Amino acid sequence: xxxxxxxxxxxxxxxxxxxxxxxxxxxxxxxxxxxxxxxxxxxxxxxxxxxxxxxxxxxxxxxxxxxxxxxxxxxxxxxxxxxxxxxxxxxxxxxxxxxxxxxxxxxxxxxxxxxxxxxxxxxxxxxxxxxxxxxxxxxxxxxxxxxxxxxxxxxxxxxxxxxxxxxxxxxxxxxx
Length: 176
Ligand code: NI
What we know:
This protein is an alpha+beta fold. The chain contains three helices and seven strands. The chain has one domain: Alpha-Beta Complex (Peptide Deformylase), CATH 3.90.45.
């Protein structure tokens, strides 16, 4: 396994739309393993392949504190969404940035697992938020782009100022 470097906003490669995975083979499983190790090491609770500059529809998520509830989503599709929730989000591609984002409260997602087997998952709470955040990455979207133009400009200015010194991840907050 290998730790993969994570792209940082506003890297234009974060805006590339990921391609469908035709077949879940050993190459994809290697990617999943490397992404999982990189997510745990960061530390984060979710990572999309886009963030490690691989533009394939692959996501890993583990919202547990014990790192033993890994969820792998290959070719995820949102088939239902309901409710509304506003929650503070962070992102491994924007170290030190935490902002409230409005999203669906519950989602139903269809995907394939690391063996290529299809499954359907109903999620709510933090997991539902995380799934939506990571699926946005596959579409080339970063969570701050859901905020007002003014807020986005302020965040960009802050990032430019701190570009020489990346803050350490905040252990009390969650990065997706
Ligand atoms: Ni993210």
